[in-house]
Amino acid sequence: MSPDSGAAPGLRLRSWTGTPYRFDPGALALELLPTGGPGPFARYEVLHEPADLVGWARDCRLRPTPVLTVARREVLAARRLRDALWQLALARVAGEDLPAAGLAALNAAAAHRPLVPALAADGSRTFGEPATGRQLLATVARDAVELFAGPHAHRIRVCSAEDCSLVYVDTSRPGRRRWCAMEHCGNLHKARALRARRTTAATADAATADAGPRAGAGADPEPGAEGA
Questions:
Q1: Is 111 part of a structural domain of the chain?
Q2: Measured by CB atoms within 10 angstroms of the end CB, which terminus of the chain is less buried, N or C?
């Protein structure tokens, strides 16, 4: 992941081919999910050291970027919170009850003191320093509480691509978002659909050609052949 230099929020991810694309999950809490997760998502783990959590804070939508002091135990706490968010998000997508273990982990993280906003001498917004990893996680957890209890909770979705598991919340007015990113899975779907249509058309053309008139079929009999 890397920060998106544009004004729009979102993470800068890379596809399996190495192509960069912007993914906006729509909420701070959901930006933690691409760092790894439980079960099959463990192979994507990127939170190993305190510097990794600091890097995620730099890349996410939190602005301004907080100045953090992160302990190793807070990295483990971040992974526990992230795994709980996976459980809760997938349960919401499936229309199931929110799991008790996930709720307990989320609420425990949210109970801590969050990042404290402050006004700098130049009139800009900042965060009180020094800030800890625990405060960062409390801020993420409180964002998740607002997300799961908010008006868009029913719009938490998994990307429609069969080979993509990225989770987002659709906050658009029409509510018709299907893809993690149109420039990634959306475009891949369009390309595959186009190839499928061309293949179908080519197959149909070949079948029509095979079924066409063969040499001599329907031709008039040779002179003298009739009554021979």
A1: yes
A2: C
